[in-house]
Amino acid sequence: MKYHVGFAIEEIIILSILLRKNNMTISRLKLIFLISICIGMVGCSFRRAPEPELKPVVKKKVSPPDSVKSTPSKSVQPKPNAMESRITRKVRSSLKLDPLPEGWTVDRHPVAKWGMSLPTVMSNVLDSAQSVEYWEEIIDIPTGYKLPLKRSKVFFQIITRLTIENVELHFMNIDHIYSSTNHEPSHYIMNAIVRTIELKPTGFPQLTSNDVVKYKFLMTYGTPKEFKKGFHHYQNDKTVLKVRELDKSHVQIQMNSLELDAKLLVAIDDMYSEEGIEYQKKLLLRAIDF
């Protein structure tokens, strides 16, 4: 700044000397013009440059794209309407499984239950009875004895619009094991059933044995316990049920009572085991008096 002021003063002195020498009008004009330039230069040197205005920097918030946005942890599931709920309850109720029958049933009514005596069964279905058969089954006992087990069976035939059903009700006389005097029909109790169902021609559609097994057993009693030798095996604490397809139009069902099978084993153990034989000897010895 001092340099500019000195330069302006020096110019003024030089011009004043020139004026003294030349009094011409043009020289005066030049002097005025030079003085104006010098004053302008001096004023510019004293003037400060304007400071730049500071503007706040605004950070733009960049939102991530839709593909990067995280999804909420819990998804909002639509609530099922009332119609769907009713349909679900209806389907679940229709899949309810039935318990295994405890004997022979006709139209879902028990006709001959496990342990029922032969005369009682005959009185229930006397009109359709075809025959009654008696025989002895020889059972080999581990102790070396042979047990003549008294058995019998009753044959029935039931004909309907769609089927011809042959029913065999099997009985056994457990009381006869304890005493040979127990030979009356009332001592025979039902322990097993064998049923054979023949499907009549129905035209279109024609029912098959596979339809019977599928809808009357697999979808009624559920998944079998096992499949062995062509039989679907079902079992609970009272009944063993086995069903198989003989051919396209014949189905066989075999059933037996677990309670009566256990009762037979108890009777055999009571009379033919080593302890049972010793007990029977003691009873006989009571009749001998010394």
UniProtKB/TrEMBL annotation:
Region (Disordered) residue spans: 57-83
Chain intervals with Low complexity compositional bias: 64-76
Protein name: Uncharacterized protein
Species per Swiss-Prot/TrEMBL record: marine metagenome
